[in-house]
Amino acid sequence: MTELTPMDLVNYLTERSRHSAPASLRNIGSSLRHFLRFARQRAWVRQDLDLGVPKIACGPQNDLPVFLSRPQLASLLASWDRTTPEGARDLAIGLCLAKLALRAGEVAALRLEDIDWRRGTLRINQSKTGSPAQLPLRSEVGSALADYLRNARPVCRARHIFLTTADARPMSSRAISQVIRRALERCQIAVPRPGAHLLRHTLASHLVQNGASLKEVADLLRHRDLNSTAVYAHVDIPNLATLAHPWPMEDSL
Length: 253
Fold this sequence. Notes:
By secondary structure, the protein is mainly alpha-helical. The chain folds into two domains: 6-63, no CATH class; 70-235, Intergrase catalytic core (hpI Integrase, Chain A, Orthogonal Bundle), CATH 1.10.443. The chain is 46% helix and 5% strand. It is built from ten helices and three strands. The chain has helices at residues 6-16, 22-41, 70-78, 85-100, 104-109, 139-151, 173-186, 197-209, 214-221, 237-243, and strands at residues 115-116, 121-125, 132-136. Strands 1-2-3 form a three-stranded antiparallel beta sheet. The model has no long low-confidence stretch (mean pLDDT 86).
């Protein structure tokens, strides 16, 4: 580590910027800065290399949620052929993301015993906090899961719900997001950051536009801090329009 230079740090962040959103890149830079300060205290490095980590510009406009319109979401969910094993699996994945606001890691971690069919609930381990949560299993999601488990899931001893079709291995969170990316490409829907999180943003944005309160959306998204949900107020166009004053006409000037 003694050979590490500030230019190495800049090059590293530049490389990560190709695959990370500005807000994520800002967090990476902050973590790197803290680690380098620790390394200096332990005498692993001789220079204050944390000063060489550039700060990432990330204004409020970068944090606005990107979401699908209702026709786009309908097109996406209709794009999977549920008569094929892969299509049945991917539809169930898409509905877990779009109707329950699960994260990719939470979908990948789902196990057979997490579904309580009698009570109509789904148990998850929240990927951000690690704490358990119990969600109502919406009928549309439950039907898709049942169809996949009965007719399409490979017969094996694995307890994870979602498996690869080729070798029956548990899917990773990256593989879950790739399911959404492929569907977006198939539907010719171009968005800045395609992936599983797009459907979580979409559900929250649609709820706010339909009149749901930020507290209700925060509960659905399992946000501990209401400030994390406040960004969705920016997509509530009908209510925002009522706050805008009419532009003065030329005759009134």
